[in-house]
Design brief:
The protein is mainly β. The chain contains 1 helix and 33 strands. It has one domain: Neuraminidase. The longest helix has 28 residues.
């Protein structure tokens, strides 16, 4: 076969085959003997379908303001065993590690935050227990705080939402009453403007922005804890109604993912969450894991921080059971196509 003029052909086959064989064997050897790359923490631990438990907070914390920037989650202030906090915790979701950032100049709990070229943290209660009108802006790139225009009135437990152009603040508690006030903030002029008031006063509500519409749900006022939903059309400056949740909730958290509003936690009875589809005008139930009960009877969860990074929703800290502070970090990953139990079944 390799005689005569075919001899050169065979030599070329050998010349080419040996390095290729050597490279293939070497590659296998590297794969077998290579040391694994160390990781900072373990992978998120699955709890049940769509749920996982991730790296706990550095310390138990409730009533913190929360915002996400890129793939990082920022928890600002809040209340812990030592009192009102000025600490800023940053959760790096890719590495699953916590770090601290520059502390907030004014320590607050029950503040609210929105992201718009930085993190605006509005109002909240100071160590005196009274609401403040202070607004402070944090720059993640500079790790620095500065003060911007104060709120038109002191408020704690408001809802801050951003549409990418301005910040909107709805409701809250002003130290004497629950308020129906609504304001917008223009970062270009550093000024607040009054908007048409909420249909009813409410504090400690939650909400989100979907297709330019601002949804404000739950909370409480002098009449008690609320399940109602109100939606604000910023273009036409009018309020409208939206379907009420199946359960009244105070101190819940919310995130918008795939055009739906996910409301989680709030009140001791909230052992399930709810998701609102604005196209259908319906709420549906989300089964929760047993939260911080760790295998015991399901407990409610309030004053938690809720935000999303891409399509993953993070539920952080809060109070569980009889008001115990939590360091929980739960992650919910909604499926693109899900079958929910209708809310009319009441969580059964």
């Amino acid at each position: 076969m390799c005689g005569g003029r075919w001899r050169w052909c065979c030599w070329w086959v050998v010349v080419l085959a040996v390095p290729l064989l050597w490279w293939g064997l070497g590659l296998r050897e590297v794969q077998v003997t290579a040391e694994p790359i160390p990781t900072a923490v373990a992978e998120d631990a699955p709890i049940e379908p769509n749920w996982a438990r991730s790296q706990p907070l550095p310390a138990p914390l409730a009533s913190a303001a929360v915002a996400s920037v890129g793939v990082d989650v920022y928890l600002v202030g809040g209340q812990a065993g030592a009192g009102v906090s000025d600490t800023v915790y940053v959760y790096e979701t890719r590495q699953r590690t916590w770090r601290t950032a520059a502390p907030k100049p004014t320590a607050v709990s029950e503040a609210t935050a929105a992201q718009l070229l930085g993190i605006y943290v509005m109002g909240g209660r100071t160590a005196t227990g009274q609401p403040t009108d202070v607004v402070e802006l944090y720059s993640p790139t500079e790790d620095r705080w500065r003060t911007v225009a104060r709120l038109p009135e002191p408020v704690a437990g408001g809802v801050a939402l951003s549409d990418g152009r301005a910040i909107y603040l709805f409701g809250g508690w002003n130290g004497a009453d629950y308020t129906d006030s609504a304001y917008s903030y223009d970062p270009a002029t550093d000024a607040w403007s009054a908007l048409p008031p909420l249909p009813e006063p409410r504090g400690y509500a939650t909400g989100g922005v979907i297709a330019g519409q601002f949804y404000v749900v739950g909370g409480e006022n002098e009449a008690g804890v609320l399940a109602s939903c109100a939606v604000y059309d910023a273009e036409n400056r009018v309020w409208g109604d939206c379907a009420a949740m199946s359960l009244a909730r105070r101190g819940a958290g919310a995130a918008v993912v795939l055009g739906k509003l996910y409301v989680l936690g709030g009140t001791a009875e909230a052992s399930y969450g709810e998701v609102y589809d604005p196209q259908k005008g319906l709420w549906q139930i989300i089964n929760l894991p047993d939260l911080a009960a760790e295998g015991g009877e399901p407990v409610g969860w309030e004053a938690l921080a809720v935000t999303n990074v891409e399509a993953r929703i993070y539920l952080l800290g809060g109070r569980v059971g009889e008001g115990q502070f939590s360091a929980a970090n739960l992650v919910y990953a909604p499926s693109v196509y899900q079958t929910f139990i209708p809310a009319t079944l009441g969580g059964e």
